[in-house]
Design goal:
- The chain folds into two domains: about 90 residues, no CATH class; about 110 residues, no CATH class.
- Helix 4 crosses helix 8.
- It is an alpha/beta fold.
């Protein structure tokens, strides 16, 4: 998953608090205009990052050294608009709580397909699979399927989608992060629906087995 931050202070704070993995953050775009990174550190080290004096400094300079801190105001460009959240995945902007939920669902999904990938994709409805492909850019679609979707015969389309999704998520999710991010975001409604249904079913099963549930006589 490729995530972009839109606030140096708050995004680094969220990483330090363990809410967002640093490895998934490809860039943080800030509203500052500081030529010297030490100036940014002076702004936030005793405020947003005060609980993590050593880790905060280490993380900030790691992001600087790996080219992941961007200050557009230094190039006379406008700062990012954070009114709809301080994070972006593709074109979707969100607050930290929303991102945490997406990351939780992603982790559940990866755990599930690591255990049994074939059952998850075979259980996914045909219309849902077609919506996934409709929600990704054409160049990603062609790259992912190895040919334009219009060239796949209708009778084998659903089978091909299931096979390619399973193959990609099992074998290439870590080495093709751009395609992975597009597919996860397009697949998110299906993932959310799957795990909400699974959780409800599990809770009903647990309640039925609980010795504290009164039994009708």
């Amino acid at each position: 998953m490729e995530i972009t931050g839109l606030s140096i202070s708050r995004c680094i704070q969220a990483i330090l608090e363990g809410k967002v993995p640093e490895g998934k953050v490809i860039k943080i775009i800030g509203g500052t205009a500081c030529g010297n990174p030490e100036e940014i550190l002076a702004l936030y080290a005793n405020d947003y990052w005060e609980r993590y004096p050593v880790l905060g400094r280490q993380l900030f300079f790691k992001l600087v050294q790996t080219g992941r801190i961007d200050q557009p105001r230094l190039r006379n460009l406008p700062p990012p608009d954070t009114s709809n959240g301080i994070w972006k995945i593709l074109d979707s902007q969100m607050h930290t709580e929303e991102l945490v939920e997406i990351l939780r669902l992603e982790a559940q999904f990866i755990r599930k397909i690591s255990e049994d990938s074939s059952s998850f994709f075979s259980e996914t409805q045909e219309e849902d699979l077609k919506k996934v492909i409709a929600n990704i850019p054409e160049d990603i679609e062609t790259h992912f399927l190895s040919l334009p979707i219009g060239k796949i015969p209708d009778q084998s389309l659903v089978y091909t989608l299931r096979q390619r999704l399973e193959f990609f998520f099992v074998n290439h999710r870590t080495d093709d992060k751009a395609t992975y991010t597009h597919l996860i975001m397009a697949f998110l409604p299906i993932i959310r629906k799957h795990f909400i249904v699974s959780t409800r079913a599990s809770n009903i099963f647990k309640a039925a087995r609980s010795p504290f549930v009164s039994q009708a006589k």
